[in-house]
């Protein structure tokens, strides 16, 4: 993937994704939220991410900046589904949303896998590893956070480093 423009495309095509825009003139397309997240379209690892009120957002100068705008989602946990050559292999989640890198094995339901497969089928990667990152909202719905095929090992790398530290 080259940047995160795909989140706008998926939003426009009514995929189950955190609603995303890249132009403040489209602000009315987002659901009302207490806070909004802005992040660089070509960013990674939460670098450059800001959480703003609607007033702060509307007063922020975003002209000429390649930023994505999303409502801040109150979620139960994050879950990642790992696929190799389009075949589901395993999933992990963060039972505590405040401790992002404390991952545990997650046993997905058929509906969870159906959700994740939508994005695997949408992406044109036939071979390799893909990670579908989602959040489980307070109402139980899954929403895509990110589709990762450049660094799908990130969560796994963190777990390996943690294991090494514990030994």
Q: What's the topology here?
A:
Layout: H1 6-12, E1 36-40, E2 50-52, H2 54-59, E3 67-71, E4 75-84, E5 87-94, E6 104-105, H3 110-122, E7 129-137, E8 142-148, H4 154-166
Antiparallel strand pairs: 1-2, 1-3, 4-5, 4-7, 5-6, 7-8
Structural overview:
The chain is an alpha+beta fold and 167 residues long. It is built from 4 helices and 8 strands. Helix content is 23%, strand content 29%. The strands form 2 sheets. The chain has a 5-stranded antiparallel sheet with strand order 6-5-4-7-8, with helices on one face. The protein has a 3-stranded antiparallel sheet with strand order 2-1-3. A hairpin with a 2-residue loop joins strand 4 (75-84) and strand 5 (87-94).
The helix count comes to 4
What percent of residues adopt helix (DSSP H or I)?
10-25%
Mean pLDDT: 85
Oligomer: single chain
Note the main sheet.
5 strands, antiparallel
Distance between the termini: 36 Å
Shape: globular
SS strand fraction: 25-35%
Model regions low in confidence, pLDDT < 50 over at least 5 residues: 158-163
Largest sheet, spatial ordering of strands? 6-5-4-7-8
H and E order? HEEHEEEEHEEH
Write down how many β-strands occur, each being a DSSP E stretch of 2 or more residues: 8
Rg for CA atoms: 16 Å
Structural class: alpha+beta
Describe the structure in brief.
This protein has 167 residues and is of the alpha+beta class. It is 23% helix and 29% strand.
């Amino acid at each position: 993937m080259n940047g995160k423009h795909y989140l706008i495309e998926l939003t426009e095509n009514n995929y189950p994704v955190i609603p995303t825009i890249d132009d403040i003139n489209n602000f009315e397309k987002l659901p009302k939220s207490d806070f909004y997240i802005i992040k660089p379209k070509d960013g990674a690892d939460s670098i450059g991410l800001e959480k703003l009120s609607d007033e702060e957002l509307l007063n922020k100068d975003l002209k000429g900046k390649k930023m994505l705008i999303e409502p801040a989602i109150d979620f139960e946990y994050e879950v990642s589904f790992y696929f190799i050559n389009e075949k589901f292999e395993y999933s992990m989640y963060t039972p505590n949303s405040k401790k992002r890198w404390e991952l545990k094995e997650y046993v997905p339901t058929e509906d969870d896998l159906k959700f994740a497969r939508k994005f695997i089928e949408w992406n044109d990667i036939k071979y390799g590893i893909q990670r579908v990152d989602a959040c489980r909202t307070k109402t139980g719905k899954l929403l895509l956070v990110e589709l990762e095929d450049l660094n799908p090992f990130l969560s796994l790398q963190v777990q390996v480093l943690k294991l090494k530290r514990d030994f």
